[in-house]
Design brief:
704 residues, single chain, Ubiquitin-like (UB roll), FAD/NAD(P)-binding domain, alpha/beta, 16 helices, seven-stranded mixed β-sheet
Amino acid sequence: MIDNRLYKHPILPVEDRPLFSFYFRDRELKARPGETIASALFANGIRIFSYHHKDGAPQGIFCANGQCAQCLVLADGFPVKSCMELIKPGMKIEPVVGWPELPPVDPEATVDFKPVEEIEVSVLIIGGGPAGLSAAIELGQRGVDCLLVDDKHRLGGKLVLQTHRFFGSVEAVYAGTRGIDIATRLENELRQYPRVAIWLQSTALAVFSDKKVGILKENRKYALVKPRVLLVAAGAREKSLAFPGNDLPGVYGAGAFQTLVNRDLVKPTEKLFIVGGGNVGLIAGYHALQAGIKVVGLVEVMPEVGGYKVHKDKLARLGVPILTSHTILSANGKDNVESVTIARVDEKFRPVPGSERTLSCDTVLIAVGLDPVNEFYLKAREFGLPVYAAGDAEEIAEASAAIFSGKIRGLEIARELGAVQAEVPEDWYRTAEILKSRPGRTYPEYYPEKEEGVFPVIHCLQEIPCDPCSAVCPRKLIEVDRRDVRKLPVYYEEKEGKGCSGCERCVVFCPGLAITLVDYRRNPEFPEVTIPFEFLKEIINPGDEVSVVDISGQELARSRVISIKSIKGNDRTILVKVQVPGAVAKKVSGLRLQPEIIETEEKYLERIPDEAIICRCERVTAGEIRKLIREGVRDINEIKTITRAGMGPCGAKTCTPLVHRLFREEGVPESEIIDQPKRPLFIEVPLGLFAGLEKGKEPGNESR
């Protein structure tokens, strides 16, 4: 029996939960309490959930966020999104093949309609991620009555998926603390304020012209909320790409991957390929390696990755090929991803003939950027409801920036409601801008000249907001400009007559794992180097021979591990000590974890680009849409009418940007394009709920 669950993780606690039985296609399988249907299927090696009604194409997970219907299955006879529905003992799961046949309904059965709940509140916050939590805390501290709604079963947003330590400012946004722990801290603080109500598993559906907001409360019943002020902190959604094979099961976004691995503790893949070199893609690659997944490569179409260099360096050191100025040509396979074909691009981002390479993999991760989830904000402005936006819903940036922007919006709203008179401090706005800033200048690597005693070597070479190293050094030998934490850290050999003691705290607490400690005291010719390591202790032992590498992943030497240790407050980072020749000691930046990736023998076969799926829900190809554009169609509503592109369950969230991209490729200026109206509801909802019928109380279905 296949079991793809994680039972050990270097960072995340793994609870010992008893398994129970469920059924997929009448086959008995095992699930853990708290798993979604999707994660339970993945854990049992099942990646094809259903088949599209239009052409029978296999369907699997895509967004894992409830915003599409790629993962639709029949659970005890009812169609549900498997990424959002929890598995239950004895549940019978069937794939959807064609149009599903629903259980019969007794037309004579009574229906229990209840009045739709309507409440008024001073502030409604949509989104319980870093921005929404921070804003709610500010308002709660000042006694403002708030309602915070989030569509997940726990608060924290994407923080609950982040096992790495955060950058930014220790003082302002918990820098040096892991995202999973920040989520717990913020939630615990928020729950101290009784005037902040929290609705989990509750999705905001729409903002209406009467300034009420429709909420699908606890995924069971409909409610209307009338706030004096609305704060939209709904985060972001991932962008997609159109290429041949982009619809195969095994092609999905980084958020879906991190949900499976870091929330549900499921190993959904053996060999992963990543498209996109922003922080999202780089971090997802690192999370994959921590879960024991092989990362066969990462491509970025630009000449350099857009994410932090320290994230890139971590992957390079561990043996992940990072190919800039490259793009994906196709995902290949019959019913699942079996390989990926990539190519180098020229200065105009066109694939270079003859540069094609095919690599074996079973999953392609798309991490090509984010779009703000700002529909509620725009609609509230249109209807004159006082509204603010925070976090990614306002501007795409790091989670540390979202935390601080939520803090600012909370105080701004408190002022508007008269709960506080004080102005938002000017330095708060300055800190917010610093935290939102993109990576700055990158400097060449440099090393201390001394070759005696013990001292840290700082391999952090790019201007990014980060200061934990300066906060943890007990002798204050590492400094970061407190006025601008984007400046590179500066190391002083001595202060007040004291130099480095070799305490290793800077090595442990650096979020980028970009500090090593070089110790010449025992053997100046073969000094000891201490390296941070965030993987299972079992995979490395004293006496093992390892490959030590420089910042770019180039091998410097083979060395034996002297010791493995932890220090108090290590925050789940262990320290590996090796002995290396003095000539390379300062250059050592990490250990290589995985061997070199071997290219498959399969060669790239030219496929018609028009085959690429643009609308996943209705399976409309680029060729179908491109034909209409070339015939003169400029109204996306007309394209929608003819092809059904945009009519699917995701509400055109994924395909609309791709349709606009097709217009650009055909040379049509944006000014000539007539966009489609935005869907009135954020997700699809049974009509009975709007009339006060609770989910599970349909005629003949009283037990559900």
